[in-house]
Structure formats: C-alpha cells, structure tokens
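Example 9 (inverse folding). The structure is encoded as follows.
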C-alpha cells in the first residue's frame, strides 16, 4: 500500500539481490488468513509450491495481520503477467514483484553504492 501510494519508490538492496532474471529467490505473496489454504491452492495452479511462512512462535504475520506464502516459481519470464494473475486470485493482497513501481534502485556493492534510475 505504501509503495503504491508513494510519489517515488526507491528500492535499497545489497548486491546479492541482483539477478539477471526474477525467480532466483522465493516470491513472497501476501494473503488474507481467512481460507488461506484455498488461496494457496489457487496460487499453486500458477506453477509453484506455496509454503506458509513461519515465525519463531507460529505463523508469520505481516503488519496488517496477513500471512505470507513463499512461492518458488522458478525463473519468472513475464513478471507483469504473473503479478496480474496472482492479484486476480481472491485472497491475494499483494506480491513481492512491485512491477513498474520502482523509480530508483540503490545497490550496495563492495565498491560502494550503485544507483540505477529509470
């Protein structure tokens, strides 16, 4: 919500997060707790095995009280399409794709900060 309401979105990450193609890491998908299992089955139909994120004392909760499904989609060839498909599923609140939202990325490297702007 904050990212979509912002005039500018700046992503800050270290160099280990830089990849040639999305899918090297699990994709977080935020879902409402009510009937999350149904939502997870629908997410799985898109080609992943969603796993409910756990915390030290039970299920991990977002600041809004929602759950996170960590999803391995493999290499993501069309992030915008996957984002649309996921967000069309009832119970999905948001994805970790942030398609077309970032204005600037600040990447920490051994040589210092690299700034990438669109």
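The amino acid assigned to each position is listed next.
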């Amino acid at each position: 919500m904050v990212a979509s309401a912002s005039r500018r979105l700046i992503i800050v990450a270290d160099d280990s997060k830089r990849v040639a193609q999305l899918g090297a890491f699990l994709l977080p998908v935020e879902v409402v707790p009510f009937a999350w299992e149904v939502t997870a089955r629908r997410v799985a139909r898109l080609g992943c095995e969603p796993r409910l994120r756990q915390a030290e004392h039970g299920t991990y909760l977002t600041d809004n009280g929602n759950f996170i499904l960590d999803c391995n989609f493999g290499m993501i060839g069309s992030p915008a399409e996957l984002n649309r498909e996921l967000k069309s599923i009832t119970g999905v609140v948001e994805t970790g794709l942030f398609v077309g939202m970032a204005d600037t990325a600040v990447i920490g490297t051994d040589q210092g900060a690299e700034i990438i702007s669109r």
